[in-house]
Amino acid sequence: SITSTAGFYEDPQVLLHRDVSEPGAGAALQGDILDSFEIESTFEWIKTNNYKRVALQFPDTMLQYGSGVYDALSRKCAELSPAPVMTILADTAYGQCCVDEVAAEHFSADCLVHYGPACLSANQRLPVKYVFGKSVLNVDALIGSINSEFKSDADRVAVFYDVSFHHKAADLEKRLKTELVCKVSVAKLKRSTTTDEPQPQSDVDQTSLQTTDAGSIEFCGRHFRSNASNAHLDGWSIIYIGPENRTLTNLVMTFNQATIYRFDAETNQLEKQTLSSNKALMRRFYLIERAKDADIIGILVGTLAVSKYLDMLQHLQNIIKKANKTFYTFVVGKLNVPKLANFQEVDLFVIVACPENSILDSKDFFKPVVTPFELEIALVPGKSWNNRYSIEFKTLLEETSTADYFAKDVQDDETDSDARVSLVSRSIKSNHKVQEITETVTETAPDGTVVIRNQNTQVMRREAPTAMDFFLQRSYKGLEQQLGETPVVTASVGRPGIPMEYEGEPAATEADDAEVDLDDQVQSE
């Protein structure tokens, strides 16, 4: 699916029953596997920088190789004096593509080696080496497919690739530029930076590009120069080399005015992604309308390492406050349906996470989950969706710093009116605007709530509903304490066993037989 959530939201039952057995676990890695995990280059990186405590982070899908990589790297590092101490990080707190600096700091690590898919988001504290793996790519088939589709030198094509093809980057760019008929630009991996301050060292290209440079495109830890006057590749074609994953989802959403193709390295087929793009955009627009209707919004913290996440968190809180809505902040780790279902009073969630974990297909959840960009469109007066989609913290924060929409004197029906019509429920929704009054009179209603009236004895509206309002409307509010009404009794021994089958209860087979006998008796009557 183009809106895959694997890696950040995953069915817990799948994780519990996953087979992580490894034939010959702990044995030395040999051949292609040894090369894929880049044992030699990792050792040189540790040696050159004199690291003493090394954290090795594996995703769940690669955890079975952890002990083998650990042993192979330990033997190489035994040459150093003193040999560095290493540990394996598993069960990451958030997305597997993100650097888990929090878990590494529990180990007091001074560096981290990240294995597998990566979002390349700018981290804040630790030096990181990325080991992406080495997927097989048939460059000849790729060139043949592109030349069959684009036969004119007037065609402009941008090529993005999954991180697992990074080992082919130099050869790929050289051959595409010399053997293709069309004009082509190949994106390069880099570390995203959201500040001018020095970032922790990384083995990935740290080239700094200013977004104001003509033709400079930055996207999900990648950059390239397109010689284009716009940064959205309007009129271009984009080819993504890799599987259907979150990077492809972000590519389709961000460059939604371009024609997107995907080259499947397993089947060597070039496929167009237009239909999926339209459906995804329609879904996101619907979620924006849901966000407009929400009174209570939950902010999900989906990262503790990505640079500027605290600034984005504060930014969202300010937006919600100025929109006269209520917010609650949740730190829940990896998302799943039961976790979010505990907060029934929340109308909608907004997630603060890395770009690859921001766009979730929330159909399985009881309440929608939107991105910070979508919440801005819904709540900020005067800001509308102009077919440009943004998932980067840097872009959103820069736009807000240069244009304070709340400070504008926007004169339209939605901002000045006390209510608006919901496009989802077709009902009248209050904007919860609080009127300024000079004199107030308070009185207590029969149900115990406080009512505020103005000088004309009109009941004044309160602000947006809160979780307490939701709680007071519930028919069941938990066990009643009944203080002073319940007699004090001596504690007694409870029923031993487990709720599934307490001791002394009839066995399951006996209960089933009794139920069958009762059914027979009812039928005979």
Describe this structure in words.
The protein has about 525 residues and is an alpha/beta fold. Helix content is about 30%, strand content about 20%. The chain is built from 16 helices and 22 strands. A five-stranded mixed beta sheet has the order 6-5-10-11-12, sandwiched between helices. The chain has a four-stranded parallel beta sheet with strand order 2-1-3-4. It has a four-stranded parallel beta sheet with strand order 14-13-15-16. Helix 7 (about 170-180) links the parallel strand 5 and strand 6 (about 185). The longest helix is centred in the middle third of the chain and has 20 residues, at about 275-295. The two termini are about 55 Å apart. The relative contact order is 0.09. Mean pLDDT is about 75; it is low at about 1-10, about 20-30, about 190-200, about 205-210, about 410-415 and about 435-440.
Q: How many β-strand stretches? A: 22
What is the end-to-end distance?
55 Å
Strand order of the largest sheet: 6-5-10-11-12
Low-confidence stretches: 1-9, 20-30, 192-201, 205-212, 409-416, 434-441
Count up the helices.
16
Biggest sheet details: 5 strands, mixed
What is the beta-strand fraction?
Answer: 15-25%
